[in-house]
Amino acid sequence: MGAKILSGKQLAQEMREEMKQETLALKEKYNIIPGLAVILVGEDPASVSYVTGKRKACANIGIYSREENHPADMSEEKLLSLIKKLNNDPKIHGILVQLPLPDHIDETKILYAINPDKDVDGFHPFNVGKMMIGEDTFYPCTPHGIQQLLVRNDIPIASSHIVIVGRSNLVGKPLAAMLMQKKEHANATITVCHTRTKDIGYFTRQADIVVAAIGRPNTITEEMVSEGVVVIDVGVNRVEDSSKERGYRLVGDVDFEKIGQKASAITPVPGGVGPMTITMLLHNTIKSAKRHIR
Ligand code: NAP
Predict the structure, then answer these.
(1) Which of 206, 222, 250, 269 lies at a CB distance of 3.0 to 4.6 Å from 258, suitable for a disulfide?
(2) pTM of the full predicted structure?
(3) Pocket-testing residue among 107, 163, 195, ligand 1, by greatest number of atoms within 8 A of Cβ
(4) What is the pLDDT of residue 172?
């Protein structure tokens, strides 16, 4: 493995230490305890495990967290009234609705109902719009985590050609918007690829940085990248592995072993982008609480 491993796990730990100091200072100087409400509807195992991770992360750095666990048949009306209640709760600075929601609930309607001032996921169209025009806002956690990984590992973003494979509203699109801004930690030239792109390798071979946010193992292969490229692997995929007790292991979207020989730096899966996503959620919750400093 010639590439430097960009450990999100390690960076997340460092950033969470900094945040711990911030929450301590907020409490001591202003008597403010940042508060995050996490709403989970149903018992999807992956969602339950994400929510547990968020609760532990909050507890570790001094954020008050409130879990709102509700059965899968919760009505849309009830969920909307819960959000309204949390919008008006002074102890809560951030509201997160764990996605996906059951089919009978309109996800867009729910995300619109969250007060944009408490939208720590950065999914409300008001905040998405602010991000697009380069205003300060709650940046969506995964793209923001990727930006921090690059910045804090001294990987130049300005003037780099960044090729993003994937155009979801969660990762690809907001990342493109953030990194193309005319501001600090941005100013990149961006190419976005997707399923209708003719020859993805043609673009990725020209990249200084490749970001894979696809959701399919081994989509980015060795011959699709150039020597010295930086690779950020956002994908989290389960592949069967009988040697593991649980019967599977997690891999990203890129051929980690082979690309690792060619790249100058690469994120592992797990331990790369994942821990950064939760870290930026904590960051947004503290940012929201700080707006209450008088
Ligand atoms: P998504 O909504 O399914 O979007 C996937 C994107 O990849 C789409 O734009 C799709 O193109 C594109 N795509 C799919 N197959 C492709 C192919 N063969 N060639 C080129 N493009 C292809 O997924 P997402 O929410 O962005 O998530 C992507 C991956 O990142 C998933 O594995 C997810 O679990 C992971 N993820 C990880 C974190 C983290 O914190 N680590 C956070 C979020 C997501 P079209 O638009 O043309 O369909």
Answers:
(1) 222
(2) 0.97
(3) 195
(4) 98
